[in-house]
Backbone:
């Protein structure tokens, strides 16, 4: 089995992916800086579960630590790198922009350099549906222009795609970018709406509903994200033989580079999502209607045809099923 380095292993997606890969027999080396962007205890509790796997090793390390990252790659000598670590959050990028530069740009160059100097077979890295920015044509296709970000977070994720392409071109490193669409589920991130809504509902507090509830999101259950990533591990990006510089497509290249959406291909109205939470918790939801926030977008909607074509997989978990699993976990974890 392959030796896999997973960055952000104590994070939401990184935890679930590492757990799944260990169960599948891979040797997994995880890193994370365990920052305090949200409650570090949740990250420590995820790691406790991962450390039960004999084929999982963890090191606390910041992507920004250039010498530490160099040493890491030499010690681990990974066949595959799955880069999920990043400073997340659209609105937080307005409050604390420098943390996004340190982690998402300076950290990513350390990943690329590690891959370059250690003969990594395949780099898969997390991008985001946020890169589509001001686009209004839906569903979002990977070949659509993504040159008008509306948050610094989105700009750093688009920058990661461009940086990866340059390394695919210069050093022939197979690079695969994954544009995630509103991932949710057990052990999720407390800063995400579904998590914070649930917390306030159980506390008897009103939730803030932006754009007066007139928003749509392509909610993607965590297990679907994990399966999509695993199916791509053994499919390193290859040059698109039909790619033309005269009429370039954005999702492929004449170099070993690909971009894929991973979303549910079925956007849900925000108010319907809130109704699902209300039904699952059995508690009437109090709402404070608010205007649209800076950096936010009206709708996200993934075209997943390219992912399906290469892997035979299409995310499928219905929202009600996913919310049920999340709320069940939430009540158990917080002893409600």
Residues:
């Amino acid at each position: 089995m392959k030796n896999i380095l997973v960055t952000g292993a104590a994070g939401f997606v990184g935890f679930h992916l590492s757990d799944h890969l260990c169960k599948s027999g891979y040797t997994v080396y995880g890193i994370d800086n365990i920052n305090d962007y949200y409650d570090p205890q949740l990250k420590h509790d995820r790691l406790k579960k991962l450390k039960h796997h004999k084929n999982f090793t963890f090191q606390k390390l910041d992507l920004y630590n250039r010498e530490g990252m160099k040493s890491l790659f030499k010690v681990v000598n990974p066949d595959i790198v799955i880069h999920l670590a990043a400073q997340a959050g659209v609105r937080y990028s307005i409050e604390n922009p420098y943390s996004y530069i340190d982690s998402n740009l300076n950290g990513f160059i350390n990943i690329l350099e590690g891959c370059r100097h250690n003969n990594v077979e395949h780099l898969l890295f997390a991008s985001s549906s946020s890169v589509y920015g001001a686009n209004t044509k839906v569903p979002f296709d990977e070949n659509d222009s993504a040159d008008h970000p509306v948050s610094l977070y989105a700009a750093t994720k688009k920058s990661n795609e461009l940086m990866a392409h340059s390394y695919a071109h210069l050093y022939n490193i197979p690079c695969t970018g994954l544009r995630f669409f509103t991932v949710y589920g057990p052990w999720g991130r407390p800063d995400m709406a579904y998590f914070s809504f649930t917390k306030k509902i159980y506390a008897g507090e009103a939730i803030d509903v932006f754009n007066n509830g007139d928003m749509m999101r392509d909610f993607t259950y965590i297990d679907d994200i994990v399966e999509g990533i695993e199916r791509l591990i053994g499919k390193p990006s290859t040059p698109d033989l039909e790619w033309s510089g005269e009429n370039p497509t954005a999702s492929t290249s004449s170099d070993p580079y690909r971009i894929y959406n991973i979303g549910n291909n079925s956007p849900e109205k925000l108010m319907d999502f809130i109704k699902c939470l209300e039904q699952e918790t059995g508690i009437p939801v109090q709402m404070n209607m608010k205007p649209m926030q800076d950096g936010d977008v009206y709708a996200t909607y993934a075209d997943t045809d390219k992912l399906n074509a290469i892997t035979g997989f299409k995310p499928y978990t219905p929202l009600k099923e996913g919310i049920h699993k999340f709320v069940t976990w939430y009540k158990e974890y917080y002893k409600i």
Remarks:
- The chain has a mean pLDDT of 94.
- Residues 24 and 227 are 12 Å apart (CA to CA).
